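Loading example: each entry is read as three labelled lines plus one structure line.
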Amino acid sequence: MSLLNHIPKQSADAPLDIAVPMFEDAPLISGNQSFASVTNRIAGVVEGPTPKMWWVLFSFSVSLLMVLVGSVGFLVWEGTGIWGLNNPVGWGWAIVNFVFWVGIGHAGTLISAVLHLFRQKWRTSINRFAEAMTIFAVICALLFPTIHVGRVWVLYWFFPIPNQMSMWPNFRSPLLWDVFAVSIYFTVSLLFWYVGLVPDIATLRDRAKTRAKKIIYGILSLGWRGANRHWRHYELGYLILAGLSTPLVLSVHSVVSTDFATSIVPGWHTTIFPPYFVAGAIFSGFAMVMTLAIIARKAFHMEDFITINHLEKMAKIIMVTGLMVGYAYSMEFFISWYSGNEFEKFAFINRAFGPYAWAYWIMISCNVIIPQMFWSKKLRTNVAVLFVLSIFVNIGMWFERFVIIASSLSRDYLPSSWDYYSPTIWDISTLIGSFGLFFTLFLLFLRFLPMISMAEIKGVLPQANPHHTMYDKPGVAHQSR
Amino acid sequence: MSDKPKPMKFPPKAFQLDPDGENLIDSAHGKSYWRSYDQLANSPEFQTFLENEFPPGTMDLPNKLSRKKFLSLMGASIALAGLTACRRPVEKIIPYVNAPEEIIPGVSKNYASTMPFGTNALGIVVETHEGRPTKIEGNPLHSSSMGSANAFMQASILNLYDPDRSQAPSRKGYEVRWEDFTAFWNEQLTAFDAVAGEGLSLLSSAFASPTLFRLKTEFLSKFPKATWTVFDPVSDERIYQGIELASRQKLQPVHHFESAAIVLSLDSDFLFLDSNNVANSRRFSQARRIMSEKDSMNRLYAVESGFTVTGAMADHRLKVPSAQIMNFTIELAKELQNLGIPVEVDLPTSSLTVGRDHITWIKALAVDLATHKSKSIVLAGYRQPAEVHALVFAINDALRNNGKTITCYHPEHTANSSVTEYQKLVDDLGKGSVKTLVILGGNPAYTANENGEFLKGLNRVEHTIHFTDRENETAQNCEWHLPVSHFMESWGDAVSFDGTLSVIQPMIAPLFDSHSLTEIYSLLSTGELTPGFDLVQSTWREKLISGNFEQVWHHVLHDGVFSGSNYQAVRPALKNKNIFTKSEISEQNLPGLECVFIPSSSLWDGEFSNNSWLMENPDPVTKVAWDNVAVMSHSTAAKYHLKNKEIAKFTADGKSISCPVWILPGQADSTVTFSLGYGRTASGRIGNKVGVNAYKFKPLDSDIRQGVRVTGTGRFQIIACTQDHHGLDADKLAADAIHKRLPAILREASLDEYRLNPGFVKEVVEEPDLFSLWKDKSYDKGFQWGMSVDLNVCTGCNACSIACQSENNIPVVGKDQVERGREMAWIRLDRYFSGDLEDPEMVFQPIACQHCEMAPCEQVCPVTATVHTDEGLNAMVYNRCVGTRYCANNCPYKVRRYNFYNFTKDLPEIVKIAQNPDVTVRFRGVMEKCTFCVQRINQEKLRAKNNHQDLKDGDIVTACQQTCPTDAIVFGNINDPDSRISKLKKQNRDYALLGELNVRPRTTYMAKIRNQNSALNKNHFEKHIQ
Amino acid sequence: MLAEFSDPAALLHGAEKIHCEGYTRFDCHSPFPVHGMDEAMGLTRSPLGYIVFVFGLLGAIGGFFLQTWVHTKAYPLTYAGKPYFSWQAFIIVTFGLMVLAGALSSVLGLFHLSKLPRLFDGLFYSERFAKVSDDGFFISVDVKDPRFDCTETHRFLESIGAINIEVIKSE
C-alpha cells in the first residue's frame, strides 16, 4: 500500500493508471483468443520442440553457473581472504549482491500479490514469471549471506534449533532478522507460486502425451480437476496468500535495510532507509521483470499476451519508483547536513566526491537521470529503449548498494583505520556466476512450466464472464460453437 | 604475574630437585620430554630424519622446495629437535615468584634472568610453562629495565624458537660434531702455543660480562700475540671517545631524566633506539607525568634530522641535518657563554643556517638551560662525532649537570666496539698475516663489508671459525660454523651501564646442538667444553661474591640482580679545552643530500631480521612494515621530482643503493634516513630478501654519508603501511575532515593553556547530553575493569603491541596481507601529525578494544559470539563466532581483527612452542580482539581465591601495561574508589574517545600536555593534518 | 455421471437448475473459476479465512514467546547494555513467524478442505474430461446422491442443456 500512498507525492499521471482499473479501451489479451487457443498457445510452448535459442542461452547460463560453483568452492576451501575485504571494510560485494538480488525479487511478489489485491487484471500475463523471477532471485540472494561468513559449516547456528552448544541466536541482531525475513519470504513466495501453478499443471497433465510427463505433472497437480468445490477454497486461499505476501514483501527490504540503519556507521545510520530500500527494490525489480518479459515475449512470440501496454505500465512504475529513489538520495544529503553531525556530513560528501565518487555518479545517472526518459510516451512504448533502460536501471541499483556499503565503511570514525576497498577476481566471478544461477533456473522454468497463468488468462477473457452479452439469447451459445 | 619478588623461603626445595622433576624420564642426565612428539612420529619425513638427523643443506631447502613442503619438513625436524634436545637444564634454576613446592602443571612460573644487549644488560622475568619460556617481561628490581621491556626484549623469545637457527655444527657445509671441532681446535692451540698466538685473530661483538671478560683476559694472557677485535655495527663508541676527549677518562654516562627539568636531545633517540632506552623512558616519564594542572613537568627540546619517537615527545623540535648538529651545538655553547655559563672550550667559528627561526630558538633554549643549572640534561646521539659529545660534556659540566642529572662510571668487565681496530683487522686479513680467524657472534660480512674488503681478506685466511646462531652471510664464507645458544639456553652473566651485576639463567636446555658463548669462550682458551654454569659460578666465587657464596648466589638468581653491585659514581672534570682541532667549522653544505643510517625500529642492526613479530611491527613513525624506506621530506622529494613509494637510486663515492622513497612530514630537508638491518640474504624464511641492505651504502666509520645524489627510477614498489593507506596524497576532502576531527580524537594542550583552563578536555568536542532510551544496565557491583592511557607519557614505542602479540598468540600475516589492511595487532598505535605540513608535531594514541559498556558490536552479532560480562568486559567467544564481520563494521574504533585465512596453518612446530597455552589460537573465519588479558584476570582471581586473599589493586597487570616503558597504561577496578585507575579517571584530563557516541568505553585517555617555552609558544589547535 | 456443457453461462444455468432440483452430491468443473457459481450451487463462503487467522495468531504469539524466553530465561545475556526483555527488537521476527504460519496454514488448509492431493479420481476415466483444464465445462453427479437415478438424472441433465453425457464406472 505504501506504494500507493507515496505515488501522489511523486508523480502526476502515473499513479492514476495504477489506482483505477486499466485498459478500458485496449483489450487485455489481443488476437481474439478463445479458451482453447490460449491453452494451445501457452501449453504449446512447454510441449513443443525446444527452440535453438533456448539451447544457446541455456548452455551460456550453465557455464556461468559453473563459474559460480568454482568460485564458491575455492572460497570455502581457502577462506574469505580471497575477496577484497580488509579491516575497515568487512562487507564487500557479497553483501552488495545479496541486497541487489533481494531487491530484484520484490517486483514479482508486488505484481502477483499487490496487484492481485487491487484487482489489476493486467497482471495476469506477467505475474507467473514475475513470481518465478522472485523465487530465483531470492535463491541467488540467499546464496551470498550464506557464503560470506567465515565458517560456513556452522551456519545453522543462525537458526533457533538445537546445536552442540545448546545456545540460541541473538534475536536482537538485524542480521538474524534478515535470516528470518528472507527465508520466510522465500517460503511464502514459493507457496504462492505453486498454488498458482496447480491448475495449469493440471492442464499440462491432461494434455501430456508420454507416461513420464503424465506421472510427473499428475503428482504436481495433486489431482486437480477444476471442481468448483475446490475453486471456492482456492480463490480465497490465493487471496489470503496475496494478503500475507503484501506486508511481507514490504517488510523484507525494510528488514534488510535495518542491517545498515540500526548500525552506528556514518552513512548507514539513517531512518530513511526502510522506505527508500523498498522503493529501490520495486524499482530494480520491475526493471528486471521488464528485461525478462521482453526477452520471453521475443523468444516465444508472446506479443499477444505480454502486450506493449503491459510494458508501458511497468515503465511508468519504474519511473515513479525511480523518482522516489532520487528523492531519498537528496533527502539523505539534506538530513546529514541538517543533523549537524560532522561524521554524517562527511560520510555523504565523501560519497559524492571521495574515492568512490565514480560509483556514486554511475548510480545517480542510472537511477535518477536515465529513467526520466520515460516521461515521453514514444520512448515508453519503444521495446528496444525499454530493454536497454531496464538494464541500466539494474546496473544503477547494484551500484547504489555498493556505494552505501563500501564508501561508508572505508572512511568511518577514526581516520587512522581508513582504507580503500577494491574487489578481487573472486568477487567478480561470484557475481557473474550468480547471474548464471539465476538464468539457468529461469530458462528451466520457461521450458517446463507454463510461463503465463492459463487459468487466469481464461478468467479475464470476455467470454469467461457468464453474464456477458454474447450469452443473452439462449441457444446463441450453441450456434457460437 | 610478575609482581615484586618476595623474599624467598630458604633453603627452597628447588635447590635439591629439578622443577617439574615429576615428569623426568632420564633424570640422571636431567633429560625430560616435556612435549610428546605427535602424529609426525610415524610420518615418512620423521623416519628419514631419525636415520639422518639434519642432513647438510637443510638450510637451503627454501630455495628448492615449495614453502608448504619446506615447512612440513621443518616441522618434522623440529619434532625431532623436541625429542633430542628439549631438556630441562641440568643445573638448578630458581623460580622467581612461585615457590617450587607449588609446582602445578599448567601453572606458569616466572624466572629472573638477563638479556645481554650490546654493552648493556636488561633485567627480565621469563614466564615459563612446563619448562618452556613463553613470555618476557621487565624485571622491576633491575636498574636497566625497571620492570619494563621494549619491543626487542619482548620479541627476543621468538628468536629462541627460530626454526632457521642452525641445528648442528658444520664444516664447509657438511655437518660435523662438536668433538670434531674440539679436536681441530686443540691442534690449533698447540700450534699457536709455540708462537704465542701469532697470526691468531679473534673478532667478537661488544659485551659487558664478568665471565666473558675474565675468559677474554685469560685467553689474551695465554696468547699475548693474538689479536682480539671487538666490533658492532651500531655502538656508542663515539660517545665514549667524546667523553674521553673532554675528561681524559673512559666513562659510561647514565642520565637521570627523573631529576631533570630541561632535556635537550641532539640527534638522539634516547627514548627509543639509543642504548639504555628502557630505563631512559622509565625515568623520563617520571618527570613527565602530571596528576593535575598544578603539577610541573619536564620540558624536552629535540634537535634532529629525522623524525624520531623522541622528537615526537619533544615540546619543541628543531629539524637540523645530522651533519649540522655540531654547528648547532657550537652555537648553543656560544649562546650559553654569552649568558655567563662557563663553557670552557675554545669554540671554533661556525655558521648555521637551518629552520626558520633557529636563532630565537637557540636563545630561548639557552636561557632555559641557564636558568635550570644542575636540573637539566644535554645529550647527543651516538651518531654524532666525538667532538660533539665532548662539547656536550663540557656544556653539562658548565651547567653542573655532571654528577647531578648525569652520573658517570668507570665501566668494568666491558669490551667496547672499535671501528679503528676492526679496520686494522681487515687490513691484516688483506695482508694475509692472519692464519686463523675466530668470529664470535656478529655478522661482519653483512654489516661491515665495505667494498667487499672483509670477504676478500677472509678468503686469504687459512682457517675461519664462526660462532653464531645461524648460517648467516658470514658463516657461509667460513670454514667452520658452530651454533651459539640463545641467551635463554645459556648460563652467563652481564653488567649493566651502572654496573649492576646479574646472572643469565637458562630457561630451557639448548633446543639444538649448540653451546653458550660462555662455554665457547672457555673452549677457545682451554680447548675443552666446560659447563657454563661452572664457568659463571667460578667467576662469581672468585671475583664478585665475598662471604656466604651459596646464600648470595641464590639471592642473585632469585632476584635477577646482585643488589648493591653497581659502580661507584665518579665525578669527572673537564680536562681539555681544545676539543676542536679545526678552528673553523664550515657549514656542511656539501652538494646533494646527506644520508643518515639508523638501526631499524624492527630489526635493530639485523639481529632480529628473522623475527616475524618485529618484522610485521610497523615503524612507529612511518608505520611501514616489512620494508625499509628512504625517508625524506616533502620539499626534498619535490626538489628531486620523487614520488612516494617510487624507487630512487642514491649514489655517492662510487657506491649506490636503490630504495623506495617515503615522504614524511617533519624530516629535515636534504636529509634521507635509512633503516639498517634489512636486505638480508642468509637470515631465514622471514628476513631474507626483505627491504634493501643499507649497510652497502653506509660508511664503515660513520652513520652519515654526505654529498649523495639521487634520481628517480619511475618504478614504484608496494609498501605495506598500517596507517594512512592513501599516504599524503589523500584528497583534500579527507584532509579537511581529519583536521576537523583530530582535536577531538587526540586532545592536546600546552601546559599554559591547561593551567589557564583545566577543563579544556571537555570543551574540545561539544557533546550532547547523553541518555539512552532504556534503563541502563548498572555496573556498580563487583569488579569493573577499566583502563586508562596517559597520552602525555606514551612515546608510541610499540612495545605494547609486541607484548600483546606474545601474550595473546596473535598471528603474523605477512606483507601482502598487511598491505591489504588485514594486520592482526590487537593494540595498535595510531600516529597523527598536527601543525604545519613541513614542521609538524607527531602524536601517538594506543588503541585497543575499548570495552564499551554499550558495545555496538554486541547487539549486531547474530549468534551471540560477543557479549558483555558482569565485570564489564566485552567478551569474544571464539568457538561461537561464525564470522559475519558485522561486529567489526559496527565498531567505531575498528579494533576488531578478523582471521581472513587460517594464519597459523603454516606455523612451524617450534614456533607453536612459543605460544601461550592460556590463550586460544584462533581459527580462520573467526573475529578476535583485545580481551583486557582476561586470562591474566582469571589467573589472579584464582590465585587470590586459593590463597584466601582479596584481590589487591595492581595484582592484575595486562601485558601491554606490564611492558610499557613509560607506565602510560593503567588497568584496574574502576568500582574501587581507591584504585589507581579510578583516581586517574577522576582527573580533569581524562576523556573518552568518541564519547559522544554514548558507547561508554571502559578505556579512557588522558589528554596530552606539551610543556612549551612561552618564548617559543605555538598555538596547538591550528591546522591538523594526518 | 458426467455431463458436459458448452460454455460458462450454460454451466452456470445448469448448476442453478440441478441445485433447485435438490441434488446435493454434484460438482461443476471448469478450467477457471466461474463467477457466481458458488451462489448457483448454493455453497457457503470458504472457512479458510478463520483457519489462517488462528494459525497466524499462534505463529506470532509463539515467536514472541520464544524470543522473550531465550533472552530473559534461557540465556539472560547483556548485549550492548540493553535490557534482557527488549520487545522492540523482537517485533520483526514475531511478524515473520506470523506470516509464515499464516501462509503455511492457508496452503495446507486449502488442500485439506478440498481433499487434495487426490491423484486418482473416477472422473479421470473419462476421455472428454481431459478438456476440463482446457475449455471443457462439466457437471458431475455422484452415484451416492440420494436423488440419483441413472435414467432420471440422464434425462434431467439433457433437459438443462448438457450437450454430452456419459456414465463413468470407476470400479
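Chain C touches chain B through nine residues (CB under 8 Å).
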